[in-house]
């Protein structure tokens, strides 16, 4: 992997179409902007229309001639996911960036009754990928990149309590949802490889990047002191969101990215240029990844096209 890889190294994306979830701010906004800068048509898949339209405007101002468009997508509502796939899915899809996420929120459920972090971070993206998979399989050189976190190390998945119904600890639930992301990528890559497909499923994480994600829960609960601590950390310790987006952009565009790879910042997984990242062994467990896959199909009602198990 090239030392010091940055946004200037992104290959030309002209003629390619990308869907970026959560593209209204942070990692998603920076990812969408840089793909547009290199010529891609980018669909900004966002829950909030006002913020999505603002992101569209910001990218157009930053990138002359940017081909970007807001499209509504609420990953906390499987009806919205299905509506997106039925109404807004492009005929050609080269890149699906599963970026949107929530972190360490107080206990809550999605529109379909799933624990919110598991439902948004994993199940929403699992359903979206499954519904868009035929388009991806039909597009030469297509990739699916799912954004996980180094904090997946907080916990393995609990197949007996996927919705944290027995107990809920917000950071453990977050870690489990990010483990679920990596298990999903592992199983998808495994099935694609056995099926002889050239579609690449890879994962990335931003390290510690300054985004709205860290302080969202504190802001929601009006915990002002905690909110200030997170904001201070973003100013002093974190790398900018533009740097945090580089591992995702690398996984999405760099030549030679391998299926089931996990790219993160090179300096201890914290900050720096994209590099192979450490991941817990449980995220490559074939038995668990297949069990989670089957459970996810049942929970979402989204049956994937036939891929070799």
From TrEMBL:
Source organism, top-level taxon: Bacteria
Gene3D superfamilies linked: NAD(P)-binding Rossmann-like Domain
The entry's keywords: Oxidoreductase
PANTHER family: PHOSPHATIDYLINOSITOL-GLYCAN BIOSYNTHESIS CLASS F PROTEIN (PTHR43157:SF31), PHOSPHATIDYLINOSITOL-GLYCAN BIOSYNTHESIS CLASS F PROTEIN-RELATED (PTHR43157)
Protein name: Oxidoreductase
């Amino acid at each position: 992997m090239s030392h010091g890889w940055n946004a200037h190294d992104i290959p030309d994306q002209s003629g390619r179409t990308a869907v970026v979830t959560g593209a209204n701010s942070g990692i998603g906004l920076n990812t969408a902007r840089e793909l547009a800068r290199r010529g891609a048509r980018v669909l900004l898949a966002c829950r909030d229309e006002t913020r999505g339209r603002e992101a569209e405007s910001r990218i157009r101002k930053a990138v002359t001639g940017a081909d970007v468009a807001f499209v509504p997508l609420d990953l906390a509502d499987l009806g919205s996911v299905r509506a997106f796939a039925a109404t807004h899915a492009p005929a050609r899809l080269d890149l699906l960036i599963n970026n949107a996420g929530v972190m360490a929120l107080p206990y809550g459920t999605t529109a379909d009754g799933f624990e919110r972090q598991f439902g948004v971070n994993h199940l929403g993206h699992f359903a979206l990928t499954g519904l868009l998979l035929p388009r991806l399989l039909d597009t030469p050189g297509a990739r699916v990149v799912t954004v996980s976190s180094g904090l997946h190390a907080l916990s393995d998945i609990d197949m007996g309590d996927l919705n944290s119904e027995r107990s809920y600890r917000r950071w453990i639930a977050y870690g489990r949802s990010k483990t679920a992301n990596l298990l999903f990528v592992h199983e998808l890559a495994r099935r694609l490889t056995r099926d002889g497909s050239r579609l690449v499923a890879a994962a990335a994480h931003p390290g510690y990047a300054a985004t709205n994600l860290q302080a969202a829960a504190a802001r929601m609960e009006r915990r002002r002191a905690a909110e200030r601590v997170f904001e201070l950390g973003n100013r002093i310790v974190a790398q900018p969101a533009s740097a945090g987006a580089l591992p995702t952009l690398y996984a999405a565009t760099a030549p030679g990215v391998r299926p089931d790879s996990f790219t993160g910042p090179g300096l201890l997984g914290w900050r720096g240029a994209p590099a192979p990242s450490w991941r817990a062994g449980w995220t490559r467990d074939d038995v668990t990844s297949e069990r989670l896959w089957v459970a996810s199909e049942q929970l979402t009602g989204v049956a994937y096209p036939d891929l070799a198990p």
